[in-house]
Automatic annotation (TrEMBL):
Pfam families: EGF, F5_F8_type_C, Laminin_G_2. This is Contactin associated protein like 3. The keyword Transmembrane applies. Residues 1194-1224 are annotated as: Disordered.
């Protein structure tokens, strides 16, 4: 095979080929007159009528040119008919080597139409992106001047093509042996072209050393590359011979058209290219060189196929006189991707019946009087050729599919056909008046060939010439089947299935979504999950979004200030090492739960990473003297890592431990405690924070062979927080300002995601232009975002109209995606809008200008506001760095509480930070990242927690006291009390408040298990609070009906002395019955106790300097948790819009239930509220929701342990199964 190179090829490719062709080289489907014949269809020629025009202007006409020999065609030019209004506006190009079995040329794998002319004189040339090698060219008009007719002059450009061709009959072979073996570094290339009608055969066999070989096999129209030892050359399938399949490439290669194959080998790397699809594989070292052996079956056969393209396609053949003998035989071959479709139908006029032979869900059926169902072991919609044969003789009917490899069905039903019974293939005419053909099934879309009726081949060329039968919407003399799944447009492991006109990607279990499984379902970091309101737990993290790195399951530890990503490895425990004279070193290797590329990406995008490294020693030195070689070292960093000789808490390259840096080592002559070599336990521990040295991959301990040496080490999990990409932002303060970046390359798939906030009602977020193509996202109004683009088919728009105003200066998210199937746009959590791509249109987005952010090249319609976390195809653009050098744009964007402040619950206060926000829980009875985590404690009968108020102050009180300086002169005016409890005790005292004036307020459970609110004011015999003239008590249990009580009294409840939970030590002011109850204390669980701004339980547990006195057994517990502790799960939370997070966020979601916990649940909320004109109850501590623990996993502890798999401690064990839990 010879290849032209250099300038000679370029000059020859421009040579016109049509001008000097003889008249016999031109053919056409028809001609208007002899002066309009195809011989006159030469560019810039005026002979005859000035060009070719067919008799009828429709899409069944064609002009054909025979170039005389195989030619490398590089361009085609068209021109209208001279001096007329006849020209083409669009056309198709077909190529062939034989004048039959035409193949349509497609520009972008899916788009086949070429643009034509706009007048009769201008020559429009189209250069083929991929040159075509063929002898025959056929042009088919698609559209023409609506005020004229089809008219054409044509020119073809290219050069002669010369190659050596070998013909193989299936048993012949060609052996090539080289005399010189190439060196290891030399690339070996084997290239060839092949064509065949057979769908299996051995194409290439190359042998290496030690009986290793590579075999390239055609199997079911696909090329399979096997590595094996030995081969059975007579088999099509080699997998059963012990061969290992390395790669499968291509599809529908048995179409009798030339296909290019190239194998490129360098060392153990091999590239296999079939046509334009390349796959890379690794081969064994024994195949570093090979020898060739070719055996392949190939023959230049003429096969005329017909393509059924759409719902109006059908082929009608007339009946035969031979049918009068009662013998009927019909054979055909078909190939399709559709699961259903009519193959053949005809009427039985004598019996007033109809026969339908149709394909449905991989079965062939013939519903005559009794259905004949044939179930096949293999699919019939696999795109392969399948043979169907129908035979009827007297009282016997048989249907055979795929002969010996298929199945045969028999029935005793005659088919009395007559000459007046035409055969209809694929479908029926669309005319409603047609009584001779009815199709109650789906039409057939696919190809048929080798049609025979009563053993006589059907001449489909005569059908095309309207000399035999009838047809509509067919492509004759070609099979137009396309494999839309090879190469597959489904990304990230999505499974591709197809029909005749489209393909579908199954994204299940891939972690991605969209029409092509392009966009990730998951967030890029724990930081992003936290800002959607998620609490600690396991989440899938996709560090590069739509990029090639797979999602990974990572534990996110959400604290009040940070969102930590915790990546485990195979040994995070403290590991003991004892001395052994038999070995000088002990080594440990650490395998992480994340893959290498995931680790590198996480460390790179995080603001801070750390890993604990601890060494406990007894006569086991660590780094030795500053001048000596280290006994112990570790390997860390990306890839294989590098040897590191510093320890946790020290600086890289320092050869020190933390104590050396702090000058606090046990021996001042050494820089590590362990290097003192004491015969007692010491340790060197600290955090490694140099990201370039993380993670720790292995550890080597060297001083463990001496007698008496003992050591222990611990390498903690890798912990990272902060997401540099998530907070990368720019503020645009002028409409004429913008940022520019290099051209965006998203030819087939493009996804764009960002957040914005603005006070403006319009502006362009992003724009990139091409010569004709463009892509743009803009805020068109205060409630509408528009995603528009053009890939050569004309502009398309996708719009999302929101029910809220988007110019509210809050962060809003935008996600846009465009692929070969559709374009989609999503704003916040609103429903996505989609726009399907044209079925036969351009697919490649061709851009060449700079990418503009926040504006356009014309400096019009600029955006005013902030854009953050802008990601294009998973890559984050560094807006901040570009903003630093761009006038009118500032890096960063402050003000996040307006968007995320609602995540702070239970009186938590949102605090602005440079990157994000945090929840200040000081004024809340709760703790955690969002002040959502209850503070609970288990109480026993002797437990007492007393919060003591200061005595009423005088005029000299110092107003600058401690934060706990709550004075007792406060009054219950518009205040509230709330708490949660769980107990089986009845009666029980829940809360007790007394005053310096021997007044009290008590909340208790009576003997019947009902809640009671009691007040005692000594000057009156009625229970009352009196403020001005009226008082209200609002009492509510869980979701039961609220009860209001109106009390009247002239005495105030003031001078509060103390608030007591549990046992009341001093109860002189109580009556005997209540005093007895108070002395019994409370047995159970209390949680989330609020008394106005006072949090007595939280202060007692977390703030030892608070004015709280605790007596009896008392400790923090998880008894008030919403669900039983389980270390693997997360809580189900709400997004900013108040809707539930989608399942792509937490791995395990909790399930809401109002009847979840043992014994039932009651929440009690008590409010005492007074107002002169209107009474309003204020909730300061919200009701706690509960969750069922059926296949649900509880939340991880958010602080304390570094190991996220440890279970929560201090679970309540004192409560029995019949306990009740209440929330107040």
């Amino acid at each position: 095979m010879f290849h032209w190179k250099g300038g000679l090829l370029l000059s020859i490719e421009k040579c016109p080929l049509v001008a000097n062709l003889p008249p016999s080289s031109f053919r056409s489907s028809s001609q208007l007159t002899s002066s309009h014949g195809p011989v006159f269809a030469k560019v810039n020629r005026r002979e005859g009528a000035g060009g070719w025009s067919p008799l009828v202007s429709d899409r069944y006409q064609w002009l054909q040119v025979d170039l005389g020999r195989r030619t490398r065609i590089t361009a085609v030019a068209t021109q209208g008919r001279y001096g007329s209004s006849d020209w083409l506006t669009a056309y198709l190009l077909m190529f062939s080597d034989t004048g039959h079995n035409w193949k349509q040329h497609r520009q972008e794998d899916s788009f086949g139409a070429f643009p034509g002319n706009s007048n009769a004189d201008t020559v429009v040339q189209y250069k083929l992106k991929q040159p075509v090698i063929a002898r025959y060219l056929r042009l088919i008009p698609l559209d023409w001047n609506p005020t004229g007719r089809t008219g054409l002059r044509l020119e073809i450009y290219g050069c002669r093509y010369t190659s050596d061709v070998a013909n193989f009959d299936g048993s012949s072979s060609l052996v090539y042996r080289r005399s010189v073996r190439p060196s290891w570094t030399v690339m070996e290339v084997v290239s060839l072209k092949f064509k065949t009608l057979k769908n299996c055969g051995t194409l290439l066999h190359a042998e290496g050393n030690r009986h290793h070989s590579l075999t390239l096999v055609l199997e079911k129209g696909r090329l399979l590359l096997y590595h094996q030892r030995g081969i059975n050359k007579n088999e099509c399938k080699l997998s059963s011979s012990g061969g290992q399949l390395l790669v499968s490439v291509g599809s529908l290669l048995d179409d009798q058209h030339w296909h290019n194959v190239k194998l490129e080998r360098l060392s153990t790397h091999l590239n296999l290219t079939v046509d334009k699809n390349t796959h890379q594989v690794h081969i064994p070292v024994e195949l570093s060189h090979w020898e060739g052996n070719v055996t392949f079956s190939c023959a230049e056969q003429v096969s005329v196929a017909v393509t059924f393209t759409d719902s109006q396609s059908f082929l009608q053949l007339p009946g035969l006189t031979s049918w009068s003998s009662g013998v009927v035989s019909v054979e055909l071959q078909f190939r399709t991707w559709n699961k259903a479709g009519l193959l053949l139908t005809f009427d039985l006029l004598q019996q007033e019946g109809t026969v339908w032979l149709y394909l449905t869900k991989q079965n062939l059926k013939n519903p005559l009087y009794v259905k004949v169902i044939m179930k096949m072991e293999t699919s019939l919609n696999d795109g392969q050729w399948h043979h169907v044969e129908l035979n009827s003789r007297q009282d016997h009917l048989s249907i055979t599919v795929d002969k010996d490899k298929g199945a045969t069905a028999h029935t005793s039903i005659p088919l009395p056909l007559t000459t007046d019974s035409p055969l209809f293939f694929g479908g029926c005419p669309v005319q409603e008046s047609s009584q001779e053909c009815k199709n109650p099934f789906e039409v057939f879309q696919g190809c048929m060939r080798l049609l025979t009726v009563d053993n006589q081949p059907v001449d489909l060329i005569k059908v095309q010439q309207r000399l035999l039968g009838n047809y509509s919407h067919l492509q004759i003399d070609m099979c137009g089947i396309i494999d839309r799944c090879s190469p597959s447009h489904c990304e990230h492991g999505g499974r591709c299935t197809q029909s005749w006109s489209t393909f579908h990607c199954n994204c299940s279990n891939s972690g991605y979504r969209g029409a092509t499984c392009h966009s990730s379902r998951y967030e890029k970091s724990c930081e992003a999950y936290k800002h959607k309101g998620n609490t600690s737990g396991h989440y899938h993290i996709d560090v590069d979004g739509s990029g090639p790195i797979k999602p990974q399951l990572i534990y996110c530890n959400m604290t009040e200030d940070m969102a930590w990503m915790v990546i485990q490895h195979n040994n995070t425990q403290l590991t003991r090492v004892r001395s052994s004279p038999e070995r000088n070193q002990e080594s440990a290797h650490f395998d992480y739960s994340s893959e290498e590329e995931q680790l590198v990406a996480i460390i790179s995008q995080s603001e801070h990473c750390e890993q604990e490294l601890s060494y406990h020693c007894k006569k086991s030195r660590l780094l030795n003297t500053p001048e000596g070689s280290p006994f112990t070292w570790w390997v860390g960093g990306p890839g294989p890592g590098e040897i590191q000789t510093y320890w946790g808490g020290a600086l890289p390259g320092s050869r020190q431990c933390a104590c050396g840096l702090q000058d606090s080592c046990l021996d001042s002559n050494h820089y590590c405690n362990c290097d003192a070599d004491y015969d007692q336990w010491a340790d060197d521990s600290g955090l490694l924070t140099h990201k370039e040295s993380l993670p720790i991959r292995s550890l080597v301990l060297g001083d463990i062979h001496r007698a008496g040496s003992e050591a222990a080490y611990r390498v903690g999990p890798l912990r990272c927080h902060g997401d540099k990409n998530f907070w990368n932002a720019a503020f645009f303060d002028k409409e004429t300002s913008y940022l520019h970046f290099p051209t965006f390359h998203g030819e087939l798939n493009a996804d764009i995601a960002f957040l914005f906030k603005t006070k403006s009602s319009s502006g362009v977020f992003l724009e990139n232009l091409g010569i004709k193509d463009f892509i743009r996202i803009e805020l068109s109004s205060a409630s509408q975002v528009v995603f528009s683009f053009d890939v050569g088919n004309g502009p398309l728009e996708v719009r999302v109209e929101t029910s809220i105003q988007l110019n509210d200066n809050r962060w809003h998210s935008v996600q846009a995606e465009r692929n070969v199937k559709e374009a989609s746009l999503r704003v916040d959590e609103f429903n996505a809008a989609t726009q399907e791509a044209p079925a036969d249109g351009h697919s490649h987005l061709q851009l060449n200008s700079q990418l503009f952010i926040g504006g356009t090249a014309s400096r019009q319609k600029g955006f005013l506001g902030c854009i953050r976390s802008l990601q294009l195809n998973g890559v984050t653009l560094d807006l901040e760095e570009r903003a630093k050098i761009t006038p009118g744009v500032r890096p960063g964007c402050p003000g996040h509480c307006s968007s995320y402040g609602s995540l702070c619950q239970n009186q938590g206060r949102c605090v602005e930070r440079v990157n994000g926000f945090s929840c200040d829980c000081d004024q809340s009875a709760y703790t955690g990242a969002f002040c959502h985590k209850e503070v609970s404690a288990s109480f026993q009968s002797s437990t007492s927690v007393a919060y003591n108020f200061k005595e009423p102050y005088g005029p000299n009180r110092n107003s600058s006291g401690s934060p706990f300086s709550i004075y007792s002169d406060m009054k219950l005016s518009g205040e509230n009390i709330s708490l949660s409890f769980r107990t089986s005790q009845s009666p029980a005292l829940l809360l007790y408040v007394n005053s310096f004036y021997r007044e009290y307020l008590a909340l208790l459970i009576n003997k019947q298990g009902e809640d009671t609110l009691g007040f005692f004011l000594p000057l009156h015999s009625v229970l009352s609070f009196t403020f001005t003239d009226v008082a209200y008590i609002i009492f509510q249990i869980d979701q039961n009906t609220r009860e209001d009580f109106s009390l009247t009294s002239d005495v105030e409840f003031s001078g509060i002395k103390s608030l007591i939970l549990g046992r009341v030590q001093e109860s002189d002011e109580l009556d005997a019955e209540l005093a007895s109850l108070a002395s019994l204390g409370f047995t159970g669980c209390l949680s989330g106790v609020c008394f106005n701004s006072i949090r007595p339980l939280k202060d007692a547990l977390l703030h030892p300097d608070s004015p709280v006195v605790v007596s009896g057994p008392f400790s923090q517990s998880s008894c008030g948790s919403s669900s039983v502790a389980n270390p693997y799960a997360t809580e189900s939370t709400h997004s900013l819009s108040g809707t539930k997070m989608d399942p792509g966020q937490p791995l395990v979601n909790a399930i809401r239930s109002d009847s979840a916990l043992i014994g039932g649940l009651i929440a009690v909320v008590i409010f005492v509220t007074v107002s002169a004109s209107a009474i309003l109850a204020r909730f300061l501590c919200s009701r706690k929701e509960t969750f069922r623990n059926q296949e649900v996993k509880a939340a991880q502890p958010e602080d304390g342990h570094e190991l996220p798999f440890s279970s929560q401690a201090d679970s309540l064990s004192a409560l029995s199964e019949n306990q009740k839990e209440y929330f107040i």
